[in-house]
Amino acid sequence: MTWLLRRLDSFVSTLFAALAGIAASQFLSFVQQYRQRLGGHLAEAQFNVRQTMDGPVYRGMDAEAQRQLLGPLVGRVNDLNDANTALATARPWELPWAFLQAADWEIASGALADFQPALPVDAASLLYTAAGLLLGWAVYDLLKWPFRRRRSADAGAA
Known about the structure:
Layout: H1 2-25, H2 27-54, H3 56-59, H4 63-89, H5 95-102, H6 105-113, H7 123-157
Helix pairs in contact: 1-7, 2-4, 2-6, 4-5
């Protein structure tokens, strides 16, 4: 029976690591698709600012009303531009942290809904795959740890 449990544990460990590796291998492709979507939102926000400034209503407003009207629009442009710049300038090992810090989660959920997996063969994607495998094994071992302690305590009591 212990042989079967060890084999099952090995299978689940490998499966967990493989799924983590596959997910990690798709991260760069997801970020690229997210940045395309982000660029579209940025272009739309910039267009909205230009349309507002060129409109006849805007020209007829006093300076304070113009600031109040443009403030949120310009803020959105700045936020999207900062997020795009952070992702564009991040090195591969910094990209996960840059994404977590700069992500617009509405845009990210839209990108995830339309995500098309890719077959990554570049060095960075292969490194992400290897890191995902290692992380998957580590997380699985951490999840097993409380049960391992109880099992060895049960064996010691018998």
